[in-house]
Design goal:
- The complex is a heterodimer of chains A (588) and B (349).
- Chain A has 588 residues and is an alpha/beta fold.
- Chain A has four domains: 4-180, 3-Layer(aba) Sandwich (Pyruvate-ferredoxin Oxidoreductase, domain 3), CATH 3.40.920; 199-378, Thiamin diphosphate (ThDP)-binding fold, Pyr/PP domains (Rossmann fold); 387-461, no CATH class; 464-583, 3-Layer(aba) Sandwich (Rossmann fold).
- Chain A contains 18 helices and 20 strands.
- In chain A, helix 17 links the parallel strand 19 (525-530) and strand 20.
- By secondary structure, chain B is α/β, with parallel strands linked by helices.
- Chain B has one domain (3-310): Thiamin diphosphate (ThDP)-binding fold, Pyr/PP domains (Rossmann fold), CATH 3.40.50.
- Chain B is built from 13 helices and nine strands.
- Chain B has helices at residues 48-62, 75-78, 100-116, 134-138, 141-149, 200-207, 220-232, 246-249, 256-265, 297-302, 308-311, 314-328, 332-337, and strands at 3-6, 66-71, 91-94, 125-132, 154-160, 211-215, 236-242, 272-277, 282-287.
- Chain B has a nine-stranded mixed sheet with strand order 1-9-8-6-7-5-4-2-3, sandwiched between helices.
- The chains are: A alpha/beta (588), B alpha/beta (349).
- The interface between A and B is medium-sized, with 26 and 35 residues.
């Protein structure tokens, strides 16, 4: 009856809000449901408002939902902040002490004295969240046995007393609901197909994708929101014989990657905007010295320290152009958690095959997003490797051979007959410093030839997602985690009778020209929604294809909402009959 | 290399052989004028860093000087920037993570220029830089050592809570051996942090610092005297403050006092100062506190969950004890001169 349910749990950081959300996700994942979550982090180190939104569906979904069906508020502040996002027929479960505003009319409200049950009956204020879980399990008919299992798993390590406390809290929450709350709302937990799903965050999927692709050397420096990648690998990579080294800063991290990668190991680093800024010089070196590397940038609100716990897609220019000189690099942008796995794994193949740096752009919302992944999607082995030189005794090894594809065969350092120098100076084929006119041109052309080769490489095919009506005159081009809201907006517009089609390129340098040109040939208007102020992708598209674009930008630190995109679609639809795209004028 | 001399006297003193007069002794804590970080900040309950910074600012307030602070990114920035009025009458310049000392240099240059223009009197202002251990031991080290090497007048304060607490407790260059952090997790293959921290004050002295001192907020009189000395002594001065962090150390919030005392009694944290006489390039080392009875390191480890796993491995505890003994042996001449029994190799538990 309700195959799709969006819940939000809001409260103070430290109240266990996230634990409630994650437990719901675990239950749903075992039921085989599809999940997408969104969570906010307080800027404070301890305390501060936070929430987790969980959308559960029987079908595959890519967005966490705009307004919620079921809102759980643990305090008055959370209620005030989150109530506007509750649907008109939504349900509110809140702390009994909260004052309810008038706009709740017509909605179902359950009030439960969570605080009193936790402090007076159980004698432990921190078990409040488990009381909430107990209540929820009654209202939504969740499998209580399973919740008990999760709680046991989580608290067994802390001793029997703590565990018993929490199991007691669960039971009391459940009992209270059973005794006092009659089921007044129609919402139920959706039923899945019982095919167990994996549950992971974007960051974990990146770490897993890298590991599956043979990455064994990780160098990094702590930075929100990318730290989780390093933390996950610090736990798991040593088991595979890999190395995680925390360096003293990002410059060291990327240089260590260069060292390990030159020595033949698949290596990576992960960071956020400030770190990528520091790494810029070395990205130029990797490009010049032709050393493979994968750099993950989990974007956050910028510039400078900016808003470390908020999301933004404002590092595209830095990823595309950061570093001086004409540098070659690949820039990729996954759109979902399963995509994080696939794109990161592919990034290693491209880096190795073409011997250049590959930057993977995600953002805070995607990094921290818990999402279900089908187990079959996380099976992978490397599908490309570095071109190795056939060393001959009669001819000296030339590291930077001017080959047709731009890729020169490499030799591992320390190989007899393959001794060579990699360098950030402009060089000739042997690696000797060369600053004559012809050689600089020849080498620059060689390095850029690799980008054309990548564009035509079957590895990079199928790196675009398409949504909507293939005949539609209104087109949307977007990137990264904005793909979810775009997909949602396209289907809302369809219901409104406005046909729209969308393309989401997951590789942004080199751009997938064939696909984008075909798309641009079909549409009359192009809307480019993205999370930055200047419209970075729109700017790239305008300069590359000389087309007018309609930029939809947002810098609020939170993801785009489908209704915002729909509004732009409606506005654009009204102009369709007025002027042709050619005369539409400047975007923005 | 400098010539090291030892002060025979163990204890706190407002005198410095580099200064003609003693610094203002702080007297009663309550009588000290309030200034920055007294209220309005968002530090966690039991945070040592807030108290430490507050004490530095109070000590400088006593000298009557205006404080211009450059602060690096970190907890200190996060908890004081949502309500900047918590800094009181301190002027603050927040810069990027690596650049606290470099910004301090800029502030000092600006002060010189303003003084030349007659806009301010150089005697009325003190320039300080405040950063955490991550911003000092790791990413900010290059800027710090370069600043010291330039010999500029100013005070650099390192608030050492022994990991990156702001970003979620990742290990830093100041993280003790065996600590479990999110990037040095305690596992079967690798057991917690395998490194031992480098010694910041040794680095500072090697780079040419005029004054280097280790302090802790529990001994507020000592800390505040040191802050005043650092402000009065010419040249670059470095102050390292032991900062309890209940959030990252996974300790209770009300054992601030106990943890610091145990740190001192087990000699995990040593209170000392070093003053450099430039002409002869002599550094005089003063030990400010020597515990009457040395406690084994295990006593210190037990109060903090970050050491919980390590404490179960006697060999690791033994190794941690060895690190402490090696460090403490530096003070052998002073201890012997004071007739204190010199014990080699205390057992760890």
């Amino acid at each position: 009856m309700h195959p799709d349910l969006t819940l939000r749990i809001a409260g103070e950081s430290g109240e266990g809000v996230i634990t409630i959300g994650e437990t719901l996700c675990q239950i749903a994942a075992r039921e085989g449901l599809h999940i997408v979550t969104f969570r906010t982090f307080p800027a404070e180190i301890k305390g501060g408002a936070c929430m987790i939104q969980v959308r559960l569906s029987e079908k595959n979904i890519s967005y966490h939902g705009e307004r919620v069906d079921f809102l759980v508020c643990l305090n008055q502040e959370a209620l005030g902040e989150n109530l506007p996002d509750l649907k008109d027929h939504g349900v509110l479960l809140c702390e009994a002490e909260c004052d309810l505003p008038e706009e709740l009319l017509g909605r179902t409200v359950y009030k439960v004295p969570f605080d009193r049950i936790a402090t007076r009956e159980i004698g432990s204020r921190i078990s409040k969240n488990i009381v909430v879980l107990g209540t929820l399990s009654h209202i939504l008919s969740l499998p209580k046995r399973q919740i008990e299992g999760f709680i046991t798993e989580k608290f067994a390590r802390k001793g029997k007393a703590v565990l018993d406390h929490n199991l007691d809290a669960l039971q009391r929450g459940f009992d209270f609901a059973e005794r006092n709350l009659g089921k007044k709302d129609p919402y139920k937990f959706p039923k899945g197909n019982e095919q167990k799903m994996l549950l992971m965050t974007g960051n974990q999927a990146i770490a897993l994708g890298a590991t599956a692709s043979g990455m064994r050397y990780f160098f990094g420096y702590p930075i929100t929101p990318a730290s989780e990648i390093m933390e996950w690998l610090a736990v798991h990579l040593p088991k595979l014989g890999g190395i995680v080294l925390q360096t003293e800063d990002e410059i060291s991290a990327i240089c260590s990657v260069a060292g390990a990668s030159w020595a033949g190991g698949r290596s990576m680093t992960s960071t956020s905007g400030p770190g990528l800024s520091l790494m810029s010089e070395t990205i130029g070196l990797l490009s010049m010295a032709e050393i493979p590397a994968v750099i993950v940038d989990s974007q956050r609100g910028g510039p400078s320290t900016g808003m470390p716990t908020k999301t933004e897609q404002s590092d595209l220019f830095l990823a595309l152009y950061g570093s001086h000189g004409d540098t070659t690099r690949v820039v990729m942008a996954p759109t979902s958690v399963p995509d994080c796995f696939r794109v990161t794994a592919l990034a290693f193949d491209l880096a190795e095959k073409y011997q250049l740096p590959v930057i993977v752009l995600v953002d805070q919302a995607l990094s921290a997003r818990l999402e279900t992944v089908e187990p079959r999607l996380v099976k992978r082995t490397p599908s490309a490797s570095r071109l190795t030189a056939k060393l001959r005794e009669d001819a000296p090894f030339t590291r930077y051979q001017l080959s047709e594809s731009g890729v020169s065969p490499a030799a591992l350092p320390g190989t007899v007959g393959g001794e060579h120098m990699v360098t950030g100076m402009e060089h000739d084929e042997k690696g000797n410093f060369a600053c004559d006119e012809e050689m600089h041109t020849a080498m620059t052309v060689k390095r850029f030839r690799k980008l054309s080769a990548i564009e035509g490489d079957p590895l990079t095919h199928e790196l675009c997602s398409y949504f909507g009506d293939k005949e539609a005159e209104i087109g949307i081009i977007s990137w990264g985690s904005s793909a979810g809201p775009v997909e949602e907006a396209v289907s809302i517009a369809k219901n409104l009778g406005i046909p729209v089609q969308a393309i989401i390129p997951k590789i942004l340098n080199p751009l997938p020209h064939q696909e984008l040109k075909a798309f641009l040939g079909k549409v009359k208007r192009v809307i480019v929604p993205e999370l930055n102020f200047v419209g970075q992708l729109a700017s790239l598209l305008r300069s590359t294809y000389r087309i007018p674009t309609i930029s939809l930008t947002k810098v609020k630190g939170v993801p785009l909402e489908p209704t915002e995109i729909v509004k732009k679609i409606v506005e654009t639809a009204e102009t369709l009959n007025v002027r042709s795209m050619k005369h539409y004028g400047r975007a923005g | 290399m400098y010539k090291a001399l030892f002060n025979r006297h163990i204890g706190i003193s407002p005198h410095s052989f580099l200064l003609p007069d003693p610094v203002v002794d702080v007297g009663e804590y309550g009588a000290i004028p309030t200034t920055g970080l007294t209220s309005g900040h968002q530090g966690c309950t039991g945070c040592g860093m807030v108290t430490g910074t507050n004490q530095v600012l109070r000590a400088l307030k006593l000298t009557g000087k205006h404080v211009v602070a450059s602060i690096g990114t970190g907890c200190n920035e996060v908890i004081t920037t949502q309500n900047t009025s918590c800094w009181g009458d301190v002027s603050v310049d927040h810069n990027n993570f690596p650049n606290t000392a470099a910004t301090l240099s800029g502030n000092i240059a600006a002060l010189k220029a303003l003084a030349q223009a007659g806009a301010v009197s150089p005697e009325s202002t003190v320039n300080i830089g405040i950063a955490g251990d991550g911003g000092t031991y790791d990413i900010g080290l290059q800027a710090l050592l370069a600043w010291i090497a330039r010999g500029e007048n100013g005070v650099y304060v390192c608030l050492n809570n022994q990991a990156y607490m702001n970003t979620g407790v990742q290990g830093s260059g100041a993280t003790p051996y065996g600590t479990s952090t999110s990037t040095t997790p305690f596992g079967k293959v690798i057991r917690g942090n395998q490194r031992t921290p480098q010694y910041l004050l040794d680095l500072a002295l090697a780079a040419g610092a005029s004054y280097a001192a280790a302090a802790c907020p529990l001994w507020h009189r000592d800390l505040m005297i040191k802050a005043q000395k650092a402000a009065a002594i010419e040249g670059p001065c470095v102050l390292e403050i032991y900062s309890v962090c209940p959030e990252g150390w996974k300790s209770d919030t009300d054992v601030f006092h106990e943890i610091t005392e145990l740190a001192l009694e087990t000699r995990s944290w040593i209170l000392y100062e070093a003053e450099r006489e430039r002409k002869s390039n002599t550094v005089l080392f003063t030990l400010n506190y020597a515990p009457k009875k040395y406690l084994p390191i295990l006593a210190y480890l037990k109060l903090q969950e970050r050491f919980a796993s390590m404490s179960e491995f006697p060999q690791m505890v033994e190794r941690a004890q060895e690190v402490i003994e090696a460090r403490w042996s530096f003070w052998k001449p002073v201890l012997e001169a004071n007739g204190k029994e010199w014990k080699e190799g205390l057992r760890a538990s």
